[in-house]
Structure formats: C-alpha cells, structure tokens
Design a protein that fits this description.
The protein has 519 residues and is α/β, with parallel strands linked by helices. The protein is built from 19 helices and 14 strands. Helices cover 34% and strands 21% of the residues. It has a seven-stranded antiparallel β-sheet. The protein is elongated, with a radius of gyration of 27 Å. The two termini are 50 Å apart. The relative contact order is 0.07.
Amino acid sequence: MFLTISTTGTPERPATDLGFLLHKHPDKAQTFSTSHGTAHVFYPEASAERCTAALLLEVDPVALVRRGKGKGRGGAPDSALAQYVNDRPYAASSLLAVALSGVFKSALRGVCAALPARAEKPMPLRIEVPALPARGGAELVRNLFGPLGWASVEAEPVALDPRFPEWGDSRYVQLTLEGELRLADALRQLYILLPVLDDAKHYWVAPDEVDKLLRAGEGWLAEHPEQKLITSRYLSRRWGLTRQAMERLELVRLAEADDLQVEDVDNAVDETTDTEEKPVPLAGQRREAILEALRGAGASRVLDLGCGQGQLVQALLKDVRFTEIVGVDVSVRALTIAGRRLKLDRMGERQAARVKLLQGSLTYTDKRLTGYDAAVLSEVIEHLDLPRLPALEYAVFGAARPGTVIVTTPNVEYNVRWETLPAGHVRHGDHRFEWTRAEFRAWAHAVGERDGYGVAFVAVGPDDPEVGPPTQMAVFTRLDRTDSTESTDRTDGDHKSDGNHSTEKTRSGTESAKEAKAA
C-alpha cells in the first residue's frame, strides 16, 4: 500500500523543509520494521520548488494471518482462502495507519526542533492514496475530509476492471487531498480516517484505543458532523468504548464553547478523595496469579514455555528470587521482540546472567528444558490442534518434568460475558479450542494421574457465579517432591478443596477432555 505527501516552496521556504518536519532526510531511502511487514520512506522528488515524501508498506501476508485477531479481513474471515487472498497488502487500512504513526511519530505530534515555527503553521499539502477502501463510497470520503479544512477532496472511484466498464466501480477510491494545513493535523486525520473508511482493524480494539482516538482527533473530532460514525467505526463498533469516547468528546466540546479546560468542566468528583482503584487488565491479573503460584512453590529456576513477546519473563526478572528464567518460543520474530522488550543489549552483566531466550517447539522433547523448578504454559495449549496436545504433555510432564507446572487457558463458558464476541466464536483467531471448566479439569486430572502430578485449580479474574472466571489456571505439583497422594481443587478466593478428585485412570488427557465435552 502506498501514500504520498507533497508540498511546494519558495527559495526562502524551500519545499525540502518537509524532510525536517517528517524527520526523514530527502536524500535517503529508509526502511522500518512493523508488526506485519516493512515500511519504506523515500522521496521521488526533492527540490526547493516541490518535494514529495512517499510511504510504501509491504505487508507480510503470512504474518498477517498468524497475528490476525480472528475476525475482519485482517484475521480469519469468512473462508479459509480469504486469509491469503485479500486486499490487505494493497489497499490503505489500519495497517497503513499504524505504519504512519510509527514511521512519522514525531511529525504526528507536531514536534520539530529544527523548524519549530514551520511545524506550527499551515503549509500547502497534496496527499494521494491510490487505493483506499471506502465502505460508504466516494460521498462518505468527501463527508469525512470535507469539514477538515481541505480546499479540494477528490475521491475517484476505481473501476472493477477498466476493460469491462459495465461491471461498474469497486469499493475503492483514489484519494487526493489538497489544501493548506499543519502537517501534524493532516497526518492525524489520516491516522483516524483510513481505518474508519475501511471499517475494519487488523488488531483487537482495547480500551486504550479511546485515548488514541481523542489524542489524534484533538482540535477537529469534537466538532465534526460525522463524529458518531467516526467514533463507532474507529472503535470497531464496541458500544461501551464508543459511548465512553462520545461522552469525553462532549466534554471537550463544552469546554471549548466556554473557553475552559476539560478538567474545569468535569469537576463533579474531587479526585483527591477518590479511592477507587483502576481495574487491572486480565493479562495483568493472570501474570500476578502465576507469580503468586511460583512464589508459593518456592521456585527459583523457571521456564516460560511459549513466552511470546516476553511479558511474563519481564515480570519474573523484577523479582530477585527467580535466579534463572528461560523463555522458549517457536517464533524467532516473537523472541526478537522479547529481546527488545527486555533490552537485552543494554542489560547489566549480572541481570543478563539470569535470563535466556531459546527457540524451540513445545511438542518435541528438549534436553535443554530438564532440571527446572517450574514451567509456565500461559495461554499456550489452546493454540495447538488437539491431536498435537499429547505430544506437548509428554514433552513437558513426561520428559522435562519440572517440579511445578502452571497452565492457564481461557474458560469458554465466560465468553458470553464479552459484549463484542459473537456467539460461538473463540477469543482469538488462532485458538484451536477453548474448554469449559469441566473439560479443563478432566484434562488436568488425567495428565496428573498419568505423569505423577497433583493438581489444584485457581480462578483468575472475576469469578462469575454462573459461568466462572475468564481464565482458568491449573497448578501441577510433582508428587515425588511433595509425597502428595491426591489432587486438590481450589477456587480463587479461599483456595479450599472441593473434594472433586480424579480417580479414574484415563487413556490420554485429550480423550478425557473430549469425553467431558460430550457429556
């Protein structure tokens, strides 16, 4: 996908000042890594009279499918083939918006130490996007960009096939914007409106997207006639987030009308006496539950199996009682990101000696993983096809045999409490299964009996009286270390045994889980 930004200049104010404002030198071609591909910035023309900066995003279709969130054209759409045959690599979308914010981060904020006065003033701009999905057609494009100060908004529909005009137009337009605006304002508009026109996002929309929307929409969104449509589409029609954003935008509008600060308008609550704590995200609650279980087990040498981008490894490093931490993942890219997150290249010698990142598959035995106090499989097992699960069971419980194994996985019964999750859908496009509490317990008891582990269960997150917690956790303890003779069920509150012990010998953990599901 492709986007160009052009400006004109004079000998006193050369057009090449655009390079200073974008923080990208006109004489260089630069490359930047993104989560789904590679972004290139180069200048097709750069003179005092006219300068054009181009952003070209090469999307990796395989990475897009693997990292897709399970719905929309960026994840797992209506058919399997559409995962690989779609418009994502070519048409401007949230992928381009994210690349825009990453590559031109300082320009979006309007920061330019070299030319601060130039950054604050409008300048002649021409922005072109050759292929822009427009769900709503060219009219919607004009309705969105027209009120934002552009002198000209051209949205030329792209024919399905110029050789067959009778087929009509596609849902794509060629967008050209011309006018005098601050560069930062123009970039912020594109950041918001590209995914709005596409009406899809390639990533899960979390509550922090409200803050992103309000930051990028500062100065124009509160008064925009299409404010509701922009807000709803940008937040992927998550009605709770949309309502929250609309309420905050109304405060902004009221504050601007009375020439006040938002804090002066929204002053009904004295924050100095407000003792209500912000809710901890589920991922944070999950990590804290894992850390508590590891501390309770007295573990000091820990494996994070399927460590992903290293969030748990980072949390473990903060506690000095964990003297050796090994993160294992099959993805080299994930390990690279984890290394950046942990700042391994800048870590002190003593701290670096505590952590190691290894590439490896969890469905194969690995001698490097033996002899550890504990292993964690956090949100891992549900990414395996069920026929491959016994291989993981043997590799971890049969071959590596750490003293403690902690497994967390979604509780499918809780899915009805997620307001934006359609009925029958799993939480992530790569989840091969999600178990009920009964299915998870049947699997855990079977694994424990077969491989010599006791098992206790812990609820993670709010424990709903009807459907249970959002995350279920099993803590396996090797019996030859504890001399324990039976497994114990616990709840997240008082951790009391409920007497639900597994006594039946099973053929495999997977078979037991399937039987529980059938029941």
